[in-house]
Amino acid sequence: MVISLPRFFTDRFILTPGPTEIPMRIRIAMIREETNPDLDPGFLELYKRVSDKLKRLLGIGKSNLYTMVGEAMLGLEAAIANIVRRGDKVLVVSNGVFGEGFADLVKMYGGVPVIIEGDWRRSIDLGNVERALERNKDARMLTIVHCDTPSAIINPVEEVSRIARSFGIITVVDAVSSIGGVPINVDGPGIDILIGGSQKALNVPPGLTIMSISNHAWEEIDRSNYQGFYLNLRLWREYLDKQGIFPYTFSDPLLRALDEALNMIFEEGVENVYERHRKAREASWRALEAAGLKPYPVSREHSSPTVTAIEIPTGVDEARLREIMWNKYGVMIAGSWGKLAGKVIRIGHMGVQASRNHLIIAFTALARALRDMGYRINIGSVIEAIESTYT
Asked: What is the pTM of this model?
């Protein structure tokens, strides 16, 4: 039997929660004539302009901000390496795979993680955080993930940071999957270290870490006196801030890509971008209801505007489902990690992917693949549910 596919299935679409689709404007920015970042003073000026745009986006007026060459894991590890000393107690908000992962980094550097357990299907309870801080006033740091993509939950990082600040404890926020898609205000609540990445809602290829560092965090960094090189945050202060040179060779194409990504956000309007992501979440949840599928988070309010996690229907093989979507319908979505492996699939609506057309493509392919596997879905109802969000 020959299946007639919609025109958009003649191409392939990456609808994962990172790395994400790279818009043509950003691709073009990457192929402009390159310079030598170590020697060209114009490149340093570009770097400063990009930093200023990031500060506007993230509500940074007091903290230092750096963009570094290295996938976002560089920033996550650097935050721990530069502050945690052997025996230091670190509070770890753990209601997802990446939240849990902070505990592993703490152990690697000799710290003692104290887990603040949370339900993987909902945002962390602020009462649990405050009680943990009361019990562990000798803790040096608290870590939390803004959007834990494997479960698609969103955490109230600004509120958590305010609570931690009242106890005098450093807060480290993993905002890798939220920067550019969810509002973040670094200075307002006193987020001490914020870490972002290029390959999520910013729609830039993997390879850049974005990191803000408060004065409070610098005091702790200086106390620890970390002696490594590539992860050493003090080198950025000593080389870039004081001498105007990079600690190591930067990437011209990636910086130009990030610059163009930020241009696109500001041209659209930051609040419009955030509203577009919230609308994508709403459309996704309506599509799931129409399809008879169950989202993993308990409610929209606990679910990130940048990704939707879906429970696998009984009797459906998750890996086979994704294989059909990719090989037959040209749409790539993601499975999950840790205890959710094989139980959850995820559709990324990050950056340009947070659109009506991308969601129709994703959910039409999902519905067709499920029908191929014997699961009954009214595709027309799914598309109508998405359309209803945008009318």
From this structure: 0.95
